């Protein structure tokens, strides 16, 4: 697997986790606003997925910085 495909996979998983986590958080807030007790699934989704998405996004940025530092800079 090439480095570009790995970076793409990391970003796709990070964005997917962030979107699902944010939707779960909105679901919890919506249920609380309506006076219901939020379900356990919607409570745990943001707690698990948002930190995973943040860690994956950080990994993608670090990989991009390291790849950029490894490239040769020509004479200016």
Q: Topology of this structure?
A:
Layout: H1 3-33, H2 40-70
Helix pairs in contact: 1-2
Structure description:
The protein is mainly α and 76 residues long. It has one domain. The protein contains two helices and no strands. Helix 1 runs antiparallel to helix 2. It is rod-shaped, with a radius of gyration of 18 Å.
Order of helices and strands: HH
- N-to-C CA distance: 34 Å
How many domains make up the 3D coordinates? 1
Outline, from the CA principal axes? Answer: rod-shaped
What would you report as the Rg, rounded to the nearest angstrom? 18 Å
Q: Give the uncertain stretches in residue-range form.
A: none
**Number of separate helices:** 2
Main β-sheet, in a few words? Answer: none
Instruction: Give the amount of beta strand, in percent.
Output: under 5%
Find the structural class using helix and strand composition: mainly alpha
Keywords:
single chain; about 80 residues; mainly alpha; about 0% strand; rod-shaped
């Amino acid at each position: 697997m090439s480095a570009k495909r790995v970076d793409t996979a990391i970003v796709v998983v990070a964005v997917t986790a962030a979107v699902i986590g944010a939707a779960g958080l909105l679901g919890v807030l919506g249920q609380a606003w309506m006076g219901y007790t939020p379900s356990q699934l919607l409570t745990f989704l943001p707690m698990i997925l948002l930190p995973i998405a943040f860690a994956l996004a950080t990994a993608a940025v670090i990989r991009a910085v390291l790849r950029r530092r490894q490239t040769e800079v020509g004479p200016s």
